[in-house]
């Protein structure tokens, strides 16, 4: 039997105010794969990502994380808050706006969920947090507060916080879009290293070089429809869809 996909999305549709923002999306993310999601603003990229950890509920279709349903069980019954948070622990998310707690130090930001969601002892949580902060080059700031950090540093802390939970997949929603241009590189370098380490990642991005060099598959959304999915080589040189050809023409 083939191994379960890390994320499996089947026939997912979603409306806001009677407008269909996702239309019958099918997408599998295999373990160890990096998938970049491209598309213009309003095409449904964030909504699709947010469905993957049930921050948004699809109207139709199903989503599985390593084979197990998220949001509803196999009989269609909604999961309890507790069951849902169990599945969500396995799906990391990194936002454009970092979402660090301002009143907590860098270390405390990373240990928060380890202590209060995973229920680890403080010594163990600290050890994991220091290790992950080291990985993103931020351990020297463990005792600093977020306000003292640059945007690139904040985002690296947010990535460490996500890694600390040992997620099966990490979702990134435009992780570099809020950064000054000179800070984008340090965050992309961390993400590139994670990809090389074998992390499963779904990345909504406008960074074409990252999409091309780091992804295994590139996906293009247009008005809620997945109109192209291809390996980067094909996507960037010879896409099937005329829409993607036009999109690429505007980015060159
Ligand atoms: P993208 O991330 O590609 O820019 P989004 O997924 O954020 O696109 O949005 C897709 C569409 O859904 C847009 O038209 C947006 O205005 C709409 N939308 C997103 N979130 C909501 C919401 N919570 N309520 C109503 N409409 C929303
Ligand atoms: Mg978005």
Automatic annotation (TrEMBL):
<dbReference type="GO" id="GO:0016887">
    <property type="term" value="F:ATP hydrolysis activity"/>
</dbReference>
<dbReference type="InterPro" id="IPR027417">
    <property type="entry name" value="P-loop_NTPase"/>
</dbReference>
<dbReference type="Pfam" id="PF00005">
    <property type="entry name" value="ABC_tran"/>
</dbReference>
<keyword id="KW-1003">Cell membrane</keyword>
<keyword id="KW-0547">Nucleotide-binding</keyword>
<comment type="similarity">
    <text>Belongs to the ABC transporter superfamily.</text>
</comment>
<dbReference type="InterPro" id="IPR030679">
    <property type="entry name" value="ABC_ATPase_HisP-typ"/>
</dbReference>
<dbReference type="GO" id="GO:0005524">
    <property type="term" value="F:ATP binding"/>
</dbReference>
<keyword id="KW-0067">ATP-binding</keyword>
<keyword id="KW-0813">Transport</keyword>
<keyword id="KW-0029">Amino-acid transport</keyword>
<dbReference type="InterPro" id="IPR003593">
    <property type="entry name" value="AAA+_ATPase"/>
</dbReference>
<dbReference type="GO" id="GO:0015424">
    <property type="term" value="F:ABC-type amino acid transporter activity"/>
</dbReference>
<keyword id="KW-0472">Membrane</keyword>
<protein>
    <submittedName>
        <fullName>Glutamate ABC transporter ATP-binding protein</fullName>
    </submittedName>
</protein>
<dbReference type="GO" id="GO:0005886">
    <property type="term" value="C:plasma membrane"/>
</dbReference>
<dbReference type="InterPro" id="IPR050086">
    <property type="entry name" value="MetN_ABC_transporter-like"/>
</dbReference>
<dbReference type="InterPro" id="IPR003439">
    <property type="entry name" value="ABC_transporter-like_ATP-bd"/>
</dbReference>
<feature type="domain" description="ABC transporter">
    <location>
        <begin position="7"/>
        <end position="248"/>
    </location>
</feature>
<dbReference type="InterPro" id="IPR017871">
    <property type="entry name" value="ABC_transporter-like_CS"/>
</dbReference>
